[in-house]
Design a protein that fits this description.
2 copies of one chain form a homodimer. By secondary structure, chain A is an alpha+beta fold. Chain A folds into 2 domains: 17-144, Nucleoside Triphosphate Pyrophosphohydrolase (Alpha-Beta Complex); 159-209, Winged helix-like DNA-binding domain superfamily/Winged helix DNA-binding domain (Arc Repressor Mutant, subunit A), CATH 1.10.10. Chain A has helices at 58-70, 130-144, 161-172, 178-185, and strands at residues 18-28, 34-41, 44-46, 49-51, 78-83, 94-102, 115-119, 159-160, 189-196, 204-209. In chain A, the strands form 2 sheets. In chain A, strands 1, 2, 3, 4, 5, 6 and 7 form a 7-stranded mixed β-sheet that branches. Chain A has a 3-stranded antiparallel β-sheet with strand order 8-10-9. The model of chain A has no long low-confidence stretch (mean pLDDT 95). The interface between A and B is medium-sized, with 32 and 32 residues. The structure holds a DNA duplex (27 and 27 nucleotides).
Chain lengths: 210, 210
DNA sequence: CAAATAGTGTCTTTTAGACACTATTCG
DNA sequence: CGAATAGTGTCTAAAAGACACTATTTG
């Protein structure tokens, strides 16, 4: 059955845009800097993206692009914004749905030949205006990390409050007071009963997200 | 010049989705209830929407749909979410970009034969799962109205603090303490120097948004 | 023991809210 | 004057932050 509108036309009779997805994968480097995953495009860099295929959701397309363009397994792409300026793309009418995905550094097994992790402070001059997407992604992630512990699940299963605070400071780009951080976050966590002896100093209790 | 990809194909060689926009126009009724503009669709109701045309932005398409389906002049549609389930629409592959637009009641000159304003508390059973869009629109507008005075510019050019508070209470769906509201909002407003004599009681100074 | 880190008591500052008072109008 | 609304002083409660203290480990 083909559906027809009041003029007897089907969906195929109207021009349609191409729809792309571009994803800012954010992660925290071992040195504590917040970074974004970029794909090489000739001499330039861009966010990994692709056109959406029939029968595919946007999130699925975003994950496929990450895998195909960078070798990375993404997790849960979230929509940020649809870029829709009609003359954005010289190839024609293309809408691009920007996404954010947060992936732990330890799970980022990217193909160094085709991709790089660049600290967000050093992102400038990406192709297709992707700087703006990075900016929106960082802002969204920072909003998420303002009040609750590791909402994007970047920590491993169990962790100490100190390591959780380090993560939050990396994401937010600011230092946090240790005592206030503990008082805010501890009630939102579960204790594992475990202890982590990290070398010098009093061993720390370990927690997990609830 | 037609751009070709690495397989020598153009954008036209790939299947593309139809892209629709659906807009929740929110407004405050004279009785103080927050309401959404619905378009009649046979015996049922839905948010006004349309397919996006070539050369047109999403916001422009949303405004066109409001005008054509309800007779309303919208203002500044903002994106909420892209609904992308591949089997959403029986007519085929259709992405729908949900929008929010806030319009003052006094500017809502809608066509009563084709449209209605329904209090958001009474919205249930809209076509195409549009209940969910209304829910998202209300949530977003409430977030906006939590901390700053009339961010969607629903008030006229000058207004008293009491009338501003009434608006905020309508949008948020809760009562606010009068003294705290004043102390939060007044520093974010400019005085006009004007006075509004509203009948009984001390006349109120008028303000405008900065 | 010194150094280092975990964990916490307590004081101060800030902010939101409660409450009540004064100010100014209409009828 | 009484009723009604505008505007504000002040107290309390809650939350965030500063600071310093105790606790427990390694070397």
């Amino acid at each position: 059955m083909t559906y027809r509108d009041s003029h007897g036309r089907t969906l195929q009779d109207y021009p349609r845009p191409s729809v792309a997805v571009d994803t800012a994968v954010l992660s925290v480097l071992p040195d504590g800097r917040l970074a974004v995953l970029l794909a090489n495009d000739g001499d330039d860099a861009r966010l990994p993206g692709t056109f959406v295929h029939p029968g595919e959701t946007l999130a699925r397309a975003a994950l496929r692009a990450l895998r195909d363009k960078t070798g990375v397994d993404g997790r849960e792409p979230r929509q940020l914004h649809v870029f829709d300026a009609p003359d954005r793309d010289p190839r024609g009418w293309v809408l691009s749905v920007a996404h954010l995905d947060a992936v732990p550094y330890r799970a980022l097994d990217f193909d160094a030949g085709r991709a790089e992790l660049r600290p967000v402070d050093e992102v400038r001059g990406l192709l297709y205006g992707h700087d703006e997407i990075v900016r929106m992604a960082v802002e969204r992630l920072r909003d998420d990390y303002a009040a609750s512990p590791d909402p994007a699940q970047l920590m491993p299963g169990t962790f100490t409050l100190r390591s959780l605070q380090n993560l939050h400071e990396s994401v937010l780009g600011i230092d946090l007071p240790r005592d206030t951080f503990r008082r805010t976050m501890e009630p939102q966590l579960s204790t594992t009963g475990g202890i982590e002896r990290g070398g010098v100093g009093k061993p720390a209790r370990t927690f997990r997200t609830r």
